[in-house]
Please model this.
Amino acid sequence: MNNSLIMGGTGMLQEASRWLIARSDSTLLVARGANRMDFGSGTVSALDADWNRPDFEARVRAALAEIPEISTALLWLHDPEPILTWLVPLLPGAQIVVVLGSTDGRPEQLRHLAHVDFVQLGSVEEGGRRRWLTHAEISAGAISALNNRKSVVVGQLVGLSGR
Model:
């Protein structure tokens, strides 16, 4: 079976989330407003996330226990290290793609995880100025990492001064 986990995929990653859901037998979507997302086609279990709730980890663990082995995970976590510390061991053998915002670096404690790929977000030069990435560009980068099974940089990793 091809089962997936998406965390934080209802905003800028909506297109990538729909892409992964369409290619999965079942998906666990953990996000703020998860129940409000139009999933398109696919079997989705939605878990509304409040990352600051003390029982957040327990709720995710319980939801994961209801789904057979996860083969692919797409994660956008604003503070990835604490969550990935307990989450990665729950996903043995899964392809894991973590999206990092333009101000994040690759999490130091995760450099040893060979099966974790990162999508590093930068900016784009346009008309002599730098602009943030569009939702479509961000999703395209995530889909590329999922398809090619390797880390990618979307845009250029330079400052956005002059906006």
